[in-house]
Amino acid sequence: MYGDTAEPTSLDCGRPTERAAFQICRLVADSLVDLDQDFHFIPRLAESFQISQDGLTITFRLRKGVRWHDGTAFTARDVVRTVESFRDLDPNGEAYRMQFGPLREVRATGDGTIAALYTEPFSLALSSWRETFIMPAHITADPNIAPALRRAPVGTGPFRFLRWDPQQQIVLEANKEYFGGRPMVDRYIQRIVPNAEALRTAALAGSVDVAPVSTEWAASHPDPDPNLPVRVVAVPTTYMELIYWNIDEPRGLFKDARVRRAMTMLLDRDGYTGKVRRGFYRTATTLIDPAIWGGDPSLRPYPFDVAGAARLLDEAGVKDRNGDGIRDTDSGPMSFTIIYNAATPEYREIGSLLERGAAQAGVQVRLQGLEWPVMKAKVHERQFEAALYRFMLEPVADPYAYFHSSQIGTGFNFGGYRSAEFDRLSAELRHTFDARRGAEILAELQRILHQDQPCTFVSIPGVVVTINRRFSIPDVTAAGLWNWYPSILRWWVPAAQRRYGREP
């Protein structure tokens, strides 16, 4: 049983956008390829894959004998229909291009063979297929016709969906006929807990088996502690915490890059990662984490520097014009609201640090905690001034998806950042197979993001979880607990310590 404070708003595995939904979909659904514990691509629904010498065709040979959870046979048509549905639901094509790049056509060339045809070489092609859950062609993917899929997904994955009890739990059962071998636990239950304190209490009481805990609590309970029924495990992640500045908000507060750099310098990020997160988090420089993606490790985060930030604001013409202690822009006071997910109290700490630092420079910051569904809607609809957000980045670099101007309104460029040079280079990266040139592009993209600060890149989290001592799990690598395959399929409980009946 896994405890979580976040409940997904939808389990549409065709286009999951939330961490909680993605975690369920990776267990219920399958992709053609996946990543192993060391970030190497491996077959999943595909038995094998081959990229042509010119890079324009990927041939997938599909596994035989795979069935959907409702008993229908899995075929090449399911793959073709998944791509067609993605395109049908994206009238302007931007989300499709973000997902699949220059994919021209997917063709079933035989009973169990798929050819993915590209108009030009695409270096992120396998990554895009890894991020695409194959959906059943015999059940329409149109949410207006089959909304049940959003509440009860049908997949080919290692677990079958059983039920979703709102605000309580999502229950999956082991797929005994799974082609990769049935999971070694009989059920996976994602229990929804109202807040972090209740989640920690549930973990210590044994009513949930796995639960994220605060870094503050983990720092005071170093593992191993024989008095605890759980192990405390620090898990590396590919997450990124950042603050979006809405460059298009009506008053134009954040249009000037100097203002955005000043905002970054008014946030004591080292104080947050070192004191609030007890050293389990790292201060971020940009979206590109050198430890995972590459880039330029010599580039350092902007320091917490109130005086330096004040000089930048002066240069940008943001000054106190009426003597009230608050700086002014041409459209009024330099005053704004930052929204954050109220379920995570540490996020308020980030807002409070910014509020205090900004006040010293004559900038007024207000904090507004929101329930996650409300928060998500405001960010995706770009109805905010500043927003604290968290992403799970893919191990394969694709900054295009987050800051290319084409992704405003359709992708993850929620702040409305526009840079012709960033657009050019991030598009080039998607077509670069040469590792040396790819590293050069990543380094240049990192320098652009560092200079322009379309977001304040706050931290690179390290997640701390408690795991009930009954469980044996694979060694934790940079891929963490969940973001690789087969991952949880290898978790098991010795017979003498089982609670919930027979497990293989």
What would your notes on this structure say?
This protein is α+β, with helices and mostly antiparallel strands and 504 residues long. Helix content is 28%, strand content 22%. It is built from 15 helices and 21 strands. It has helices at 19-28, 76-88, 94-100, 125-130, 148-151, 196-205, 215-219, 257-265, 269-276, 306-315, 345-360, 372-380, 400-403, 420-429, 435-452, and strands at 2-4, 33-35, 41-43, 46-51, 57-62, 103-110, 113-118, 159-165, 169-174, 187-192, 210-212, 230-236, 239-245, 282-283, 328-329, 332-333, 335-341, 364-370, 386-392, 455-460, 462-468. Strand 15 (328-329) and strand 16 form a beta hairpin. The model has no long low-confidence stretch (mean pLDDT 89).
Which short descriptors sum up this protein?
504 residues; 4-stranded mixed β-sheet; single chain; 6-stranded mixed β-sheet; 22% strand; 15 helices; alpha+beta; 28% helix
Total beta-strand segments: 21
Q: What's the total helix number?
A: 15
> Uncertain runs with pLDDT below 50, 5 residues or more?
none
| N-to-C CA distance | 17 Å
Question: Can you give the helix content as a percent range?
Answer: 25-40%
Q: Report the C-alpha radius of gyration, rounded.
A: 23 Å
Mean pLDDT: 89
Percent of residues in beta strands: 15-25%
Largest sheet geometry: 6 strands, mixed
Shape descriptor reads: globular
Q: Strands of the biggest beta sheet: in what spatial order?
A: 14-20-13-19-17-18
- Which structural category fits the helices and strands? alpha+beta
